[in-house]
Amino acid sequence: MLSLAVLLLAGCTAADSGGRTVAEVTATGAERATTGDIDSPADEQGTVTRVDYPTEYDGDAIRKHALVYTPAGYDQDGTDRYDIVYLMHGAGGNADSWLGRTGDDPTRLQNLLDNMIEDDRIDPVIVVTPTFYPDDDSSMDLHYAGELDRQFHVELENDLMPAVESRFRTYATTADADGFRASRDHRAFGGFSMGGVTTWYTFINDLDTFRYFMPMAGDSWAIADSGGLVEPERTAAQLDRVARQSGFGKGDYRILASVGGSDGTIGQMQPQVDEMREFPDSFDDSNLRFTIDAGGGHDDDSFLQQLHTSIQQIF
Prior knowledge:
The protein is an alpha/beta fold and 315 residues long. Helices cover 33% and strands 18% of the residues. The protein contains ten helices and eight strands. The protein has helices at residues 22-25, 35-39, 108-118, 142-165, 177-182, 194-206, 227-230, 232-246, 266-276, 300-311, and strands at 47-57, 60-70, 83-88, 125-129, 187-192, 212-216, 254-260, 288-293. It has an eight-stranded mixed sheet, sandwiched between helices. Helix 4 (142-165) packs across helix 6 (194-206) and helix 8 packs across helix 9 (266-276). The longest helix has 24 residues, at 142-165. It starts with 21 loop residues before the first helix and ends with a helix.
């Protein structure tokens, strides 16, 4: 479900790639999520709601859905407003992969969010799990998934965000481009595997409406498939251009990249991060962090550990 093309050269390790080693770009001191955080329901549980919305694919009008997690105590008629995180699955997944279906018992992702909020590790937050697939055929064709990733920002901007943020109490006072730009400090996008690829596209296309980005086990494919491995210099240069041309300073955006230490995609992410650090006017330790989940693989366990680390560093 969470597969990503792994094009590593035989015998190449993270330390062989030149420049900084993993240790030099790894955030340290982060506590790990416990088994109880992930597998035990919290005393106070949030709610999962399905949101259906119209969009377009290949010139045809279609309907899709996303799931929306709201924290315990959320009151639609109240005055509180909430930060929001959009969280994308990997290849073969769908909108229900991480939050289940409405009415089901809490999933491991919901347990993690509920427990972190209950323990005051993060503030109450809204989390949205959409899909880049246009239908129920969640193909494992990675090039196809990559093309869907490339296009998803249009749906995100025009259809998904208005559908969600017109209904739930985010910081966007109007569910349009002006409202999203004004509330960008309270919005994040993250994803695992091909969802990590989607996250880099969101940075490229929507830096004006998102401040925080959490690409997990996925590099940028904007220059080429597996661009972090095959074209790391050009990939980093493009991301630098996006940052410089955005009009935002380094303090106006933060990238919390991460990968499992035993995940083959580390060979795609690290070269890209190393090259991004060659553009210090856009990326440095203050706004580009690269965390290794020691021993983590390309799986849900590592995804949850990476999210646990990164989500505490936003908002």
